[in-house]
Amino acid sequence: MNTRTFVVALSTAALAVGSLAACSAERGSTGSTPASGTQSGNSAPADAEDTMVGIAMPTKALERWNRDGAHLVEVLEEKGYKTSLQYADNKVDQQTSQIENMITEGADVLVVASIDGTALGPVLDKAKAQGIPVIAYDRLINKTESVDYYVTFDNYKVGQLQGEYIKSQLANLKAPIHLEPFAGSPDDNNAKFFFSGAWDILLPLVKDGTLQVRSGKSPKSNEEWQSIGILGWGSDDAQAEMENRLNSFYTDGEKVDVILSPNDSLALGIAQALEGAGYKPGPDYPLLTGQDADIANIKNLLAGKQSMDVLKNTDRLAEQTAKMVEQIVKGEEVEINDTKTYDNEVKVVPTFLLTPETVTKDTVQKVLVDSGFYKASDLGL
Ligand code: BGC
Predict the structure, then answer these.
(1) What is the CA(196)–ligand 1 centre distance, in A?
(2) Range of the domain at 257
């Protein structure tokens, strides 16, 4: 394990907990001066039962965020913390006011999976002004000083796993091989990493003619990923887009062979569009990628309607986040393993990265069931 901890993290944590204690003292004693010692960051660590963790999640509409929220609450409460979990129906204003309420109601630490990574600066500045440490959960929060840590999966690697899977299967396909690429929500910082990881592998194959994109929706560089992004990651929008491409560019008897889908919600919609256009599971069904290992998609994988998935074990993500909360609250060194990659345009946010894993039909049992992520019965096995 190449996990490293950094002195810089220690000093940030000391500052964070110093201001956390100051903040709790101020709120607890309505306007009195901070407890002695808080200025130097040497105050006694806060007790878990006195610590409220505000958790802001984007939407209940996707299976993964429900699991993320529930598990985060479970592990934090096991450690004795109080929690306040809110979902924002993918609406930025709703998420902003939920965070505002958490601050007003005395949250001591905030864990935020943002909807729009650039929209939370002003509300998080309020948190910072009150000394409340902020952890960006899964998605980086951009263009603000007011985020202390980031905990996520290696998002570039997610895209690489998708690209590598596609590349590994091309020998089984007959030329010309038709690819249709999709990207995630343009307001989600992760989507850029997913696309870049895959496109660094696939673009050379588009350039040398191995892969042909009949729709022309083929970004010329990673930077152009937003041009094919599906705002809000909606299955219905992905389905409509795939139907549109099939109806406009595949009416002459040619078939689509490969579809790069960045995640499972898009893959579900794309699979619907394929079914509507008469594609049947079997050797001619297109390669279709995904991410999140949602139950509906794993069922599709087993039924031959999706070719691979990427498991990001969100239980581990929640556990690492709870550990981070505890290290911040206790004033301990905060464990991080990336101090370079996640520049939010104001600062490089100290990050803990976890590793994603490919799942195919043949590895469902090993990767998803034997690991305890799902019970066999969850997947109809
Ligand atoms: C997450 C993915 C998820 C997508 C849509 C991304 O930020 O990392 O796991 O599929 O959002 O919710």
Answers:
(1) 15
(2) 155-311+361-367+373-379
pLDDT digits (tens, 9 = 90+) for 284-297: 999 999 999 999 99
Same domain, residue pair 256 and 318:
no
In short, whether 154's Cβ falls inside 6 Å of ligand 1 is no
* Separation between Cα atoms, residue 323 and residue 137, nearest integer Å: 13
**pTM (two decimals):** 0.88
> What single string gives the DSSP state of each residue in 131-199?
T--EEEESSPPPS-S---EEEEE-HHHHHHHHHHHHHHHGGGSPSSEEEEE-B--TT-HHHHHHHHHHH
* Same structural domain, 164 and 307: yes
Task: Please name the residue whose Cα sits nearest to atom 9 of ligand 1.
Answer: 292
Residue 373 C-alpha to ligand 1 middle, in angstroms?
18
Do 187 and 270 lie in one domain? The reply is yes
Does ligand 1 lie within 6 Å of residue 64's CB atom?
yes
Reported as a single tens digit per residue, the pLDDT across 319-342 is 999 999 999 999 999 999 999 999
